[in-house]
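Students often ask why we bother predicting the structure of a whole assembly rather than each chain alone. The short answer is interfaces. A chain on its own may look different once its partners are present, and contacts between molecules only exist in the joint model. In this exercise we take two input lines together and write out one structure for the complete complex. Read the inputs first and try to guess which parts will touch.
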Amino acid sequence: MTAQATPPGAAQRLPRTLALRLGVPVVAVALWQLAARARGSVFFPTPARIVDHGYHLWFSGPAERAFLTDAAVRDLLPSLGRVLAGFALAAAGGIVLGLALGRSRTVYALCDPVLQFARAVPPPALVPVFVVVFDLGTPMQLASIVFGAIWPVLINTAEGVRGIDPLRLDVAATVRMRPAARIVLLYLPAALPRIFAGLRLSLSLSLILMVFSELLPGTADGIGFSLTDAQTRSDLLTVWAVMVLLGALGHLLNSALLAVERLALGRHRAAHRT
Amino acid sequence: MSPATVRRKRAGRARSALLGAVGVLVAFAACEALGRSGTVRSAFLPPASEVLVRAVELGGDTAFLNGVGATLQAWATGLALACALAIPLGLLLGSVPAAAQATRVLIEFLRPVPSVALIPLVSLLLGAGSETTVALVTYACVWPVLFNTVYGLGETDPLAKDTLRAFGFGRLAVLLMAGLPSAAPFIAAGVRIAAGTALILAVAGEILAGFGEGLGTFIAQAGMATDGTRDVLAGVVWAGALGLVINLALTAVERRLFPWAPEHRGSGT
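Now the answer. The structure tokens for the assembled complex follow.
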């Protein structure tokens, strides 16, 4: 696809590309605006009102607090903290355990069925267990995120390590490379592309589980809470605004991860974005 | 493959299976010991054997099985709808660069919206019922199938396309005769990934709705009962087993249909 999209005259085509890329979304939003205005349905407010509402709700605060309002501090920051902390823990745990498991065929064979089962369990199904164990609150939410998001990283890391070229291991044995050096110089680089594939899956799972764990009855703060709160008040404007915010947040986090991936993997994988 | 290699492969597989069984037993014994010893309160982690017995008991419970049936129905309907939407769309986007560019911003914005966040909106729009679950499952499953279709089309052998074009076949014919077959293994991998996501969403939707029938509803209600952890975990065992069976079945189908396909590489989202 990209090969066809960037012929020699790419610079001349730029206006056309831009028009195509931005044209359709702009037209779609404009049509929505017109249709919503004409129908005046409570369920589908106009985009202008949604954006305006979101702005007033979260980003019209004082300048010294980066324009965040009280509602933003109460709802957005805790959620952001949870999703980042949960994802970081899942990533670290998954990579460490994956490296440990992937290096030995025997250990991997021992753990494989248990891992496959753990991965097959839909993570939300376990959240009620965490609610009983940790009670409602941040520890329960973190546990849910970590338990749901760790498997793709763990399994991908282990498989990446297993797929390492045996020749390189022989070389490492010949030069008597120390275990720590082996991990940094051999296993990690070999597994990195698969690790990042796992991280991308984990990130979207983290976001899903963050929202899910905050939607449960009894939670008191977070983006998910503001969503249920708005739902019970039939405040559709807030529901829509939260959705737009989550879309933007997801896009932002994903772009950040892709940027890190490109840095870590260098140019040779640049064409491989999914 | 020489008979010796086949024999060695078989021996390797038998060894892995044996080790796997040992691993399962160790994990089971560890959970049992933790539950019995009292280091962890039994309300938190009931002994593994009790959970397993309860899970088997549930297999004879008609009401529970009906619930599982309802969950699976929502799962299958949502997945089928997602495929019906995503495969043609993916073929379009993958073969017409202008269409791909035009929809890119829209897709980049819609995709990262976490599907569970749609639950409040969809349940306000459609009410709480199976339509809501189906809509959520569909939304979540469209993405992996769509992206894998587009990606698979990108891997079409240019020579095959050129040859067909040289014989005077039109765009659509080239797409159907060269593009679709080469994209098919990727599409299948996308469907397999989507099937897992669909199960997550079906269960999550039911847990949050909290009523009606379904595996998620069972888990949610057991979670609220005092000392209900055993039932929750028994439900989790069922959910995990369903996920495992679905994944194994789809992997087997993929292997049979596309034995030439290399390690299916589509990573979905």
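Check your guess against this: DSSP finds eleven helices and no strands in chain A.
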